[in-house]
Amino acid sequence: MTTLVAQEQSRSLDGAEKVAAVLLALDREASQRILKYFDHDELREIARLAAGLGAVPATALEEIYSALIDEISHGGVDLVGNAAQAENLLTGVISEEQVADIMSDVRGSSNQFFWRRVCSLPEKTLADYLVNEHPQVIAIVITKVDPAYAARLLAQIPGPIRAKVMRRMLVSKPIAESVLRVVETTLQDDLFATSNAPSSAELNARVAGIINQLERDQVDEILEGISESEPLIAAQLKSLIFSFEDIVKLGQRARTIVFDQLPTDRVILALRGADAGVRDSVLPCLSTRTRRMVEAELSTDASPPKREIAAAQRQIADTVLRLADQGAIEIPKSGSAPDQPE
Which residue among 55, 89, 107 closes a domain? Predict the structure, then answer.
């Protein structure tokens, strides 16, 4: 090891190598904070350089950044860059899939994480895609996936194509890494870019989640604007939107479950801005003691800021949506009557 350091004493690092060396020298938390500012291609380059950096003496690190002397000067070989260290550098900064993609490129090997993900696809889905590809591409995929999955996949492929694929698997030469990389990239773009895109139902839920945070008049304005051109979408959104005033649509049992989870002070604050109909639907759902407290407070002349009232009402509406999502209560469909008191 001492000989290795001596051989490296005169080594000169270029700009990108200095970045990799400094990042390896920093503690993990510090390096992760910095790495978040790099894009994917820059991270790939840093990982490649870090993996091939080898031994770097303390003198070289001192020349890069003298302020790091106390942290990295431990005697002997202060820093050794290799593939394991490069992978450790990226872990926690980007997703596991991105780390696997970058390190497969650095190591010159196939992306095992990606191929495990391919095996998570239904065999029929992948087979329907592959039957339109060249038999050589199908053969490459078959050789990379799990054998049990490969057998089920082949069973979904028409017989004539299956025979061509098996023949190519038997007579083809080893796959070049550059070819494998092209296949992996194409499959990623064709199969997973689409599967990761949100469905229309998910998009509706996202939009409804945003709209649910708005004031009632703003919600009505948005729905009216959408319904002019897309009445069906507007109807779907309306079924996902729940405001504080909609509490009257819930059955008494559901209202009881909701208000059991809310602090009394929030209930009082919300009801100060509510009309008589909402108050009349909420008060019977409270315990006797809580109801007396609420009614006593509402009889006073207190005038809290409107924004505080709106926040309390929004909290109650959010609680309803959360409990409905958990299956604890059910929100009646638009136009249906609420549950009758039990």
Answer: 107
Report the candidate in 331, 313, 312, 311 with the shortest Cα–Cα distance to residue 321.
331
- Other Cβ atoms less than 10 A from the Cβ of 246: the count is 16
The answer to whether residues 161 and 101 belong to one domain is no
Residues 282, 264 share a domain: yes
Contact 282, 271 (CB under 8 A): yes
Rounded Cα distance between 318 and 261, Å, is 12
Q: What is the pTM of this model?
A: 0.40
pLDDT band, residue 253 (cuts 50/70/90):
very high
Q: What is the pLDDT of residues 153-196, one digit of tens each?
A: 888 888 888 888 888 888 777 777 778 778 888 887 787 765 44
Place of tokens 């019977």: 284
pLDDT at 339: 47
Structural domain boundaries enclosing 305: 244-326
* Residue 122 belongs to some domain of the structure: yes
Q: Residue 271: how many CA atoms within 13 Å on its side-chain side?
A: 27
